[in-house]
Every structure is written in C-alpha cells, then in structure tokens.
Amino acid sequence: MKASIITIGDELLIGQTIDTNSAWMGAELSKYGFDVYRITSVHDRREDILYSLKEATGKSDVVLITGGLGPTSDDITKQTLCEFFDTHLIINEDVLFMIEKMMHHRNFPMNDKNHRQAEVPESCRVLKNAEGTAPGMWFERDNTIFISMPGVPHEMKHLMEKMVLPELKKRFTSQTIIHRNIMTYGTFESKLADILTDFESGLPSNIKLAYLPASGIIKLRLTGTGSDKESLSKKLNDQVDILYKTIPEYIYAEDEESLEMVIGKLLKSKQKTLSAAESCTGGEIAHLITSVSGSSAYYKGSVIAYANSVKMQLLGVKASTIEKYGAVSQQTVKEMAEGSRKLFATDYSVATSGIAGPDGGSDEKPVGILWIAVASEKEVVCEKRVFGDNRTINIKRFSLASLNLLRKQIIKQ
Fold it and tell me: Is this model's pTM higher than 0.85 or not?
C-alpha cells in the first residue's frame, strides 16, 4: 500500500512555516502499514497543485493533502480540486451550520469569507471539522483516494484521528510494519556502516536498516515488513540481539531515548547524585539533564565557570594549574570536576573546558578541542576530543560527548 503527501503553501517553501504535518502524517500512515513514498510541498499556484495531483494519481493508493483551505484569496485548493475532479463548488448546509455555531460561540460576526468556507466540491465526501471552519474533503479517482485537509496542525490531526485513519483501516488490508530504533554514540556514520557490513548483508529480505545521524548520535532504524506480526516481531528481535553483540560499545538505548534520559535512569537505580561544572558548554549539560522529568531526584546543580576567576573562586581550581596548563587542559578540567563534586556534595560530577569557536584556537589547542572530566568517589576520568569549527554544533557535540563519558562511568561503577 503506497501513500503520498502533498502540502500546499508558499510559507512552507520560503521557510516561514516548518512542515510538521508531513512528519506526523508519515508516522501515522506507517503505523497502519502504508509505505509513504513521496512528500511534496508546492506553491499556492493552480498549475503546481494540478501537477502534483496528476503525479500522484495511480501511483499511490492514498494521497493526503493539507493547506490552502482558508477564507483568503490566496487559498485556492478547493477551486483547483474542482478543476481536477471536474466538479464545482456548492454550499454544504451542515458545514455552514457548524461554522455559524462556532462563530457565534466565539462572539465573532459571520462575513462573506466565513460563508464561502462552507463551499465544497459537489463530488466530494465532506469530513466535518469540529476544530475549525474548513472541512476536510474525500475524493476517489483512478483507484486512488485523495483526502484534502486544513493545514492547521490540530485541525488536520483531528480529522486524521477521528475519520481518515479509521476509514483507511477498514478499506485496506494492512500489512504489518514494525520499527526498532537502536540509539548509538561514539563513532561516525561511515565507520559504523563499515562495521555493520556483514550484519546488513545478512538481514532477511523483509528487514531493512537505515542510518539516521544527528550531532554525533546515530539512530539505527530496523524496519520489518510482513503479514504475520508475531513472526515479524521475532525476526526483528533476533536481528537486534545480533546488533547488540556486534556493537555493544556504541549502543546506549532504544526507541528515541536520549543520553540524559539514560543517565537519569542509571542515577535513580543506583541512588546516586550528579552535579556539573561547565565552561565551553555554557549550561547546555544542565539544560539537557533538567529537561528530564524527575531530574530533581538526582541532579543538584551546576557552576557555569566561564571565566578563570570563577573556576578558581567557586570550584577551587589552582591559579598555578591555569597558569601552567591553561584553562583548556586535562589538569584544569580535572580540578573543575573535583571542585564541583565537593561543592555540591554529589556522587558524580562532570566538567567541560574547550574552545567552541569559530575563533580562539591555536596550533596546540585548535578550535573544537574539548576536555571532559567525570569525578566520582573512586576516581577522576578525563577524555580529550576534537570536533569542528561550528560553535553551535560544537556546544551540542561537547555536551553529548560529556554525557556519554558520564554514562560509561556510572555503568562501570
């Protein structure tokens, strides 16, 4: 079963509005066994809309369309759908009643534009929209179902959940699609792909592997397709087991779980506490840790020691250490971690010092250099990493590298 998605609106193409609709619809269709093979965004132009509709006809079982159903002059989707399906607009009295009732409830006056929103192509099946004034519309042509919905996300989701998806489930014998997401950190995509060459070549024909990298984290998505859910699930589990045996040093979680979430679970299970001393990460580690609900049970606080004076005054870093080795050094970051752990009286502390860029580097200490330290009762472990020269990306990568070293130390102890 193939599906395609068409989003309509100039604002999508010039970056004023991010197309979150396609991502949500694609995920939902996948759950129902549809293969989403194309997502298209087009201008509010008649010829572009017509072209995208013709392209999808006969190639997709279902075409989902959002946008262009508003009351203003640039919203031309309904008129274009009339042309494509060789029909014309009529007033739908039920829709008009819903719009009048909604406007009255909100104490808004009805005007001509609101009235025109009750116009629908005569040949469509109307999908009543209880969340807004623009109805959805269902068409069928050349063995393809076309469903046009508002571009407003909560209105589209209402129609999808209440009417569209239940109907599609009835109409199609759904195949089973199962995704397993394995989260990895600690290597780069090409190296990971090289390591997994034999694993990938040995996958059953109905299971595919995809690499989805972002800021150092690589999500490995295993997707299985079949008719027997139980059998397919067992096949996937077997492949996941092989994956764990193949790259145990890189896997840290499954199913979109973040490093900070994993760290939170580890600290809770061991009844341990955490603090941080951040220089180059500027509070990003604290932000990530506290983004997890319940982090107050294990996280005590941070010192953002950007200036050397703060490193010395609050964390107890020796002036002689900074003078001899510099702020970005193993020796300094080690004392930062020890000072933070002592200041907050925590079981663990993670510290960072580096050069995020794009300037400030040298031959000895280039832009992108990072020193991390994780202090515990038993030891202080330090690690040096070197990344690129993009400041925003570096701060994210610095933080994730620090969290991963912290995770490994908690597991080790």
Answer: no
Q: What's the token pair of residue 304?
A: 């953002």
Contacts 24+ apart (CB under 8 A), 264-272: 264/289, 264/292, 264/294, 264/295, 264/298, 266/407, 266/410, 266/411, 267/297, 267/298, 267/347, 267/348, 267/410, 268/294, 268/297, 268/298, 270/410, 272/298, 272/346, 272/347, 272/348, 272/410
Domain check: are 193 and 160 in the same one?
Answer: no
DSSP notation for 58-82: TT-SEEEEES--SSSTT--HHHHHH
Range of the domain at 119: 2-171
Asked which of 146, 171, 196 is the last residue of a domain, the reply is 171
* Residue range 228-245, pLDDT digits in tens: 889 999 999 999 999 999
- CATH code for position 248: 3.30.70.2860
CA dihedral 27, 32, 33, 37 (to 10 degrees): -40
